[in-house]
Design a protein that fits this description.
By secondary structure, the protein is an alpha+beta fold. It has two domains: 41 residues; 73 residues, no CATH class. It is built from two helices and five strands, in the order E-E-E-E-E-H-H. It has a three-stranded antiparallel beta sheet, with no helix packed on it. A two-stranded antiparallel sheet has the order 3-4. A hairpin with a 2-residue loop joins strand 1 and strand 2. It starts with a strand and ends with a helix.
């Protein structure tokens, strides 16, 4: 038996973790092993589609694209996730290994940029 554990990690994020056999105990302490993690992240801050806001307000990025602030936010989130999954929990390899990570996104530019 496994347990699916959901945890909100921010205003637009959630993390789902599957952990193995919650009945297994070691010295009276529940022994759970994380099998995999699913994390949902919404795209970063984006510019408007409407023409009533000047492009300069969004640092000149195209309509609907991720702004510089959105990119900075996702860099910060990425550093936080790296610290958690690589440094602290040793869940992922120190060196990027594509087979350890699966990233899914729509074809909308702001979504693929944020992924």
């Amino acid at each position: 038996m496994s347990v699916l554990y959901a945890e909100p990690t921010g205003s637009r994020q959630a993390k789902v973790t599957l952990q193995s056999d919650p009945a297994k105990k070691h010295n009276g302490v529940q022994d759970l092993e994380t099998l995999f993690v699913i994390e949902f992240i919404r795209h970063g801050a984006r510019s408007h589609y409407e023409d009533n806001v000047p492009a300069s307000f969004f640092d000149g990025v195209k309509k609907g694209h991720v702004t510089k602030k959105g990119k900075v936010d996702h860099t910060r989130i990425g550093a936080s996730r790296r610290k958690e999954y690589v440094t602290e929990k040793k869940f992922l390899s120190e060196k990027y290994t594509p087979s350890e990570i699966l990233s899914l996104s729509t074809f909308v530019q702001r979504c693929s940029t944020s992924g």
